[in-house]
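Check the record.
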Amino acid sequence: MKEDDCIVYVVDDDERMRVAICDLLEAKGINTHAFGSIVEYTAFSRPDLPGCLILDIELPMISGLEFQMQVDQDAHPPIVFITGYGDIPTTVKAIKRGAVNFLTKPFEQLELLDSINSAFEQDRLKRRDAATVAVLKERLATLTPRERDVLPLIVGGLLNKQAAAQLGISEVTLQIHRSRVMHKMQASSVAELVRMSEKLKLSSDTPVDARQNQRRSLS
C-alpha cells in the first residue's frame, strides 16, 4: 500500500504505541506524524492532503471521544479510534458520530491498514464534494436577486406559468430568467439543476421572502 499523497496523524500518549504504528505505516510508504496529546495535534499545521486520524480514547486533558464530540469533524480527517479498554457503548457512540473504526489493542496490522485505507477514501470523497460545492457557490453568486428567486421554483417542479404567477411576473420574463439560471449554473437539464440545489442545500419549497433572507445571508 503506497500512499504518498495521504497522511496519517497518530495521537496516543503511549510512546511505544506511537512508534510502533509509525514504523508500520512508514514501512508501507505512508506519511505519518505522531503526537502525545490532542493539544499537540491541534497545534500542528496540517498539510492540505487526504488523511486519517488515529486517535486513542484515553488521552491527557481531553479524551479522544471528547475531541470527536466537540470539533467540527469536516475540519479534521476521518477518525480511527484505538483503545486498550474497549466497550460496546463507547464503540457505538464513536461509530454513530462518524468514526471509521474502533480498534481494541492489541489489534491486527491488517485491520488497522484496512481502516486507514477506508479513512483515506472517505476523506478524498469529502474533499471532492467540498470542491464541487465551492464551484457551485461561485456560480450561485453570479445570479441576480430575481434569478435566485426563480431557481427554487424551477427545481421545485413548477410550470413556467405557475412560477411566473407566484413571483408576479409575466411568463415570458420567467422564461428569460429560467434560461439565464440554467446558463449561469451550467446545468444541461432541470435534473442536473436539482442535483446542484441538493448539494447547495437549497430548499425548493421555501417562500420567496424567506429565500430573500437566505440570499442576503449568502452574500
Summary: The chain has two domains: 3-128, 142-218. Strands lie at 3-11, 30-35, 51-56, 79-83, 101-104.
